[in-house]
Write the structure tokens for this entry.
Amino acid sequence: MGISFWQIAIVVLIVVLLFGAGKIPRLMKDVGSGINQFKRGLKEESNSDENSEEASSAKLEQDKETATTATAARSAETESKDDKKVANG
């Protein structure tokens, strides 16, 4: 039981009578514009998520470098104290 040509024609006729021939193209333009804005919003959201992931990854790398530097500094400080103890006797 599909939709016949006459049923589609009646629906189109009713739509034209309700909205008028001039409003239909404007209505379709507005629908298309809404779809485009929705797609742009999704793309911006996706880019925002990627940027936040990159930022957190960069922060993690920076924290690792800071920890490595701090460990190296402590190690050098410990060696320096050991050298002073040996020199003092």
